[in-house]
Amino acid sequence: MAGAPWRHLFPAHEGRSPRLGLLKVVFVVLASLCAWYLGYLLAELIPDAPLSSAAYSIRSIGESPVLKAPVPKRQKCDHWTPCPSDTYAYRLLSGGGRNKYAKICFEDNLLMGEQLGNVARGINIAIVNYVTGNVTATRCFDMYEGDNSGPMTKFIQSAPPKSLLFMVTYDDGSTRLNNDAKNAIEALGSKEIRNMKFRSSWVFIAAKGLELPSKIQREKINHSDAKNNRYSGWPAEIQIEGCIPKDPS
């Protein structure tokens, strides 16, 4: 300590304070340049995005991705579940109300419906070749006016062997339905044709020259009831759908 009595007045580190200050200044300048450059790059990468979108994108980095359920695949004839590949899909819908027409769908093809212009008041029938799956004939028979029971009976009886017959009503299907026509439909397995009343909603699937599986729903009926009608003077529409095994040959 001799010869340097003034050293105790100035601690050793104070001699380096100007250098530390300079380093701080350089660091601040470099940090500012880096921040400016990062902002410039961000503006170049998303020039049209608003600042709010950019800020959201930055905040979303590292967040867990949102998993979305896939859109359900549409099935043939709007079934909820698909039919096996070795079966035919079908869906029968009766009319309901003045403006709700009957529909017959087979293998996702609309055989009869308002869009095709081939459905009308009465009983609507489509005949399909069971072996090929192709429609062979479609006709509608007015059962409120005219004598159409005879032509309908002949149409049903003319279906060739190994045919599928689909029947649906729109409006009234019973007023002019005679006994011969009822017998022809009953011979195909109908249990409800003799219960038909004015404006009853009715759907029926039959087969000629082959046996349908007992587990499939083949027929359904809904009668007009002033207290329970969904529409004024009209019962609610009804439907049946299912899968018919294809010809194994």
UniProtKB/TrEMBL annotation:
This is FAM3 metabolism regulating signaling molecule B. Residues 121-209 form the ILEI/PANDER domain. One of its GO terms (molecular function) is carbohydrate binding. PANTHER family: UNCHARACTERIZED FAM3. GO terms for cellular component: extracellular region. Belongs to the FAM3 family. The lineage of its organism: Eukaryota, Metazoa, Chordata, Craniata, Vertebrata. Keywords: Disulfide bond, Lectin, Membrane, Secreted, Signal, Transmembrane, Transmembrane helix. It is found in: Secreted. InterPro entries: FAM3, ILEI/PANDER_dom. The chain crosses the membrane at residues 21-43. PROSITE patterns: GG_LECTIN.
